[in-house]
Design brief:
It is a single chain. By secondary structure, this protein is mostly helical. It has one domain (about 5-205). Helix content is about 75%, strand content about 0%. The protein has eight helices and no strands. The chain has helices at about 5-25, 50-70, 75-80, 80-110, 115-140, 145-160, 160-175, 180-205. Helix 4 (about 80-110) packs antiparallel against helix 5 and helix 5 runs antiparallel to helix 6. The longest helix is centred in the last third of the chain and has 28 residues, at about 180-205. The radius of gyration is 18 Å and the shape is globular.
């Protein structure tokens, strides 16, 4: 089987694996635990009510955002299950705009690693919110090409939850830097690289797109 044929299956397998890891992370906080996993090093701020609300909102809603976003780029679902595509799309944008991005911004204000980590996560949340809002505006105007572009950008930022952990594994395995140095690096790598890849995809496949056909991603 050619690489072009196997690559989508490989990407799907990697995506599914990291989604599974995300589920195992979230399960640690259910029904309600404030001293496990990541929160074990956030005891200095977990006593703040607004941080707790932001954290658990962000963590719990991530289980809906990742699969809902993925459905948007499946051509088979778009062609054969248009209603599922539409409903999952609204779940995605409502959760991101009203819950996930705002809660991520609050969490970013208290991110480990100091100012540069905090700046990165807050900027990520702002860009995530903005790109998703622009995707909604575009579809309301029936500008399907712009809608696809903004959704690609939005989902690239959504994937930062996965790529943050992937970059962490790679950097620790290769370079063994101190934990806080690792965190500062992955704070930026987790979404900046994703956004660059998104722009390359947009330029290569959608820059001159004028039709209302389903997106190129299969």
């Amino acid at each position: 089987m050619k690489l072009k044929q196997t690559l989508p299956f490989l990407c799907l397998a990697v995506y599914a694996y990291f989604c599974y890891l995300m589920v195992t992370i979230v399960l640690q906080y259910i029904p309600y635990h404030t001293d496990v996993a990541f929160l074990g090093i956030k005891q200095d701020v977990i006593g703040l009510l607004h941080y707790r609300i932001a954290f658990f909102t962000h963590v719990y809603t991530s289980l809906c955002v990742l699969p809902a976003g993925f459905i948007q780029f499946n051509a088979g679902i778009q062609k054969q299950h248009k209603r599922l595509h539409r409903y999952s799309g609204w779940i995605y944008v409502v959760f991101v705009i009203l819950l996930v991005a705002p809660s991520g911004f609050i969490m970013g204000l208290y991110a480990n690693g100091g100012f540069f980590s905090q700046l990165s996560f807050c900027l990520l949340s702002v860009l995530w919110f903005y790109s998703t809002v622009q995707a909604v505006f575009a579809i309301r105007r029936k500008n399907y090409v712009d809608h696809r572009k903004w959704m690609i950008r939005s989902f690239a930022l959504t994937l930062s939850a996965i790529t943050l952990r992937a970059w962490k594994y790679i950097i620790v395995y290769l370079f063994h830097p101190p934990p806080m140095d690792t965190y500062r690096m992955v704070a930026w790598l987790s979404w900046v690289v994703n956004l660059l890849i998104a722009e390359i995809i947009i330029i290569k496949y959608l820059q001159n797109e004028k039709s209302n056909k389903p997106p190129f991603i299969q």
